[in-house]
Amino acid sequence: MKSIYLDNAATTRVDDAVVKEMSKYFSDSYGNASSSHLVGKEAKRAISEAREIIAKSIGAKDEEIFFTSGGTEANNWALKGLFFANPGKNHIVTTKIEHDCVLETCRWLESQGAKITYLGVDKEGFVNPRDVERAITPNTLLVSILHGNNEIGTIQDLWEIGEICRKKGVYLHTDACQSYTKTLLDVKKQSIDLITLNAHKIHGPKGVGALYIRKGVKITPLFHGGGQESFFRSGTENIPGIIGFAKSVKIASSGDVKRMIKLRDKFISDLLKIPHTKLNGPQGDRRLCNNINISFSNVDAEAIGDYLVSYGISSSIGSACSSNTLEGMHKRSHVLEAIGLSDMEMKSSVRFSISKYTKEEELNYASRIISNVVEKLRKMSPLR
Ligand SMILES: Cc1ncc(COP(=O)(O)O)c(C=O)c1O
Fold first, then answer.
1. Please, is 22 exposed, middle or buried when counting C-beta atoms within 10 Å of its C-beta (0-12, 13-18, 19+)?
2. How many angstroms separate the alpha carbon of residue 187 from the centre of ligand 1?
3. Is 318 in the pocket of ligand 1 (CB under 6 A)?
4. What's the CA angle centered on 30, arms 29 and 31, to 5 degrees?
5. Digit-coded pLDDT (tens) for 326-336
6. What 3-state class would DSSP assign to 164?
7. 98 in contact with ligand 1, CB cutoff 6 A
8. Angle between the 16-27 and 239-251 helix axes, to the nearest 10 degrees?
9. Bridge partners of 7?
10. Ligand 1 within 6 A of CB of 72
11. At what angle do helices 71-85 and 100-111 cross, to 10 degrees?
């Protein structure tokens, strides 16, 4: 059976060049970067080269990049680290469409005395910069806004939000796990103080990421111990992971992004030819190049996903989970809810996410199968 992987927003295949680069750091240069002998020094040198590559990719200084175990840790660190280092201010502004690792951290911080404003978004998932401005009070410490949304692909305008934050003297943090290497990220142009990055969404390994922290930002470490990462993130460095992360950034190309945009738009237009379908999230260059999210009216997304699996197609369901009845228990997508979808629309929404490895013929095949599956399910649906 064919295998067509359309769940690249969940994770990506590791590029062969990344695997090759990493392998040396398991078997030959396996030293601990804290050791002063030759093998240790080699590890230290490799980390500093990797740091330089990541820093350059976002216009930062090398010493502003701190390696972490991934996006979840970096987001936890950004929010908790700022909150505990700045006891004079306890207000955080964020949005209703953040990744769970930001939302759950915010909820936990509320139990520690933080006040959180969760801003709403418009029908395409955009936060209004004026709402950000209005939400900021003298007590606001931080604005944390997801750059590229993992469910519906909305890319926020960080330029304007960054300017507002700078003018008001509050920190701006962005989770860029989905947008990194896919759209511009520049710490100076966009006035960003902290950025969460990870490797496994860009053909790098799982379990590694980074937090960019602008020099001068007052933040406390999440991990204490041996003093690695300039005493800001203790723990022996994941050297193969860090090397693989840097390699995945180095080989990311704007040509791949352009190709994905073409494939994405053709796939969207093919899927929208299916009657009673609707695209969730924006069109054009304000949408992540790899994201497609469609509501198939009156069809249970979970049933679509199950059928697609039988054809070898992997997709993702943002809103449905364990139930196979439309009235039953289902996990709501907080993102689809925030852009105003009805319960029925949420339960009929499927996310497809492509990568540089996705081929046009795979998408042509997938759209034909999806069209047949939706037609079949609609015929069976009691809601017809
Ligand atoms: C937007 C976003 N933030 C954070 C994360 C979490 O990153 P990680 O899996 O590296 O912990 C993800 C991955 O699911 C994500 O899509």
1. buried
2. 20
3. no
4. 95
5. 333 346 899 99
6. helix
7. no
8. 150
9. 353
10. yes
11. 30
Provide the pLDDT for residue 331.
64
How many percent of the chain have pLDDT more than 70? 96
The structure tokens listed for 38 are 């030759």
Axis crossing angle, helix 301-310 with helix 360-380, rounded to the nearest 10: 130
Instruction: Output the six-digit token pair for 5.
Output: 């992987």
Tens of pLDDT, residues 78-100? 999 999 999 999 999 999 999 99
- Contacts for 81 with CB less than 8 Å, ≥ 6 apart: 219, 220, 221, 222
Secondary structure E strands in the chain: 4-5, 65-68, 91-95, 115-119, 140-146, 171-175, 194-198, 209-213, 277-279, 291-296, 313-314, 349-353
pTM here?
A: 0.95
User: With the C-alpha atoms ordered 253, 8, 59, 248, is the resulting torsion angle positive or negative?
Assistant: negative
Residue with tokens 């013929």: 361
Q: Which residue type is seen at 177?
A: C
Instruction: Determine whether 289 is an active site residue.
Output: no
The residue among 194, 148, 146, 186 whose CA lies nearest residue 170 is 194
